[in-house]
Amino acid sequence: MNTIDHEALVDGLAGLEGDWICSDEDLPEGFEDVYVLDRDEKRFINNGKQGSSKDAKERLVMNFDPERV
After folding, report:
1. Cα dihedral angle (34, 11, 26, 21), rounded to 10 degrees?
2. What is the pTM of this model?
3. pLDDT (tens digit, 9 = 90+) per residue, 13-54?
């Protein structure tokens, strides 16, 4: 996650036509006009090393109202 350019991610998603959904632990700046669903805490692998994991909250970010589908 440390290597993701969040600004480029937000800009790229904003430029897409149609509906999209993105899963992220943190909500980057620029996601003002989106729907966000928080999911329960789960264990995620942190850095690929065996036995290394952390609690994280997943956020599903989408540009459509999930209630309409």
Report:
1. 50
2. 0.65
3. 989 999 999 887 777 788 778 888 876 655 555 555 666 666
**Amino acid identity for residue 3 in this structure:** T
Residue 37's beta-bridge partner residues?
60
CA distance 26 to 35: 14
Q: Which H/E stretch holds residue 45? A: strand 35-45
DSSP lists the bridge partners of residue 53 as: 45
Residue 54 to residue 46: CA distance in whole angstroms: 6
- pLDDT value at position 54? 64
Pairwise CA distance, residues 63 & 16, whole Å = 10
Using CA atoms, how far residue 40 sits from 13, 49, 51, 57, 59, in Å, is 24, 23, 21, 6, 9
Amino acid (1-letter code) at residue 53: S
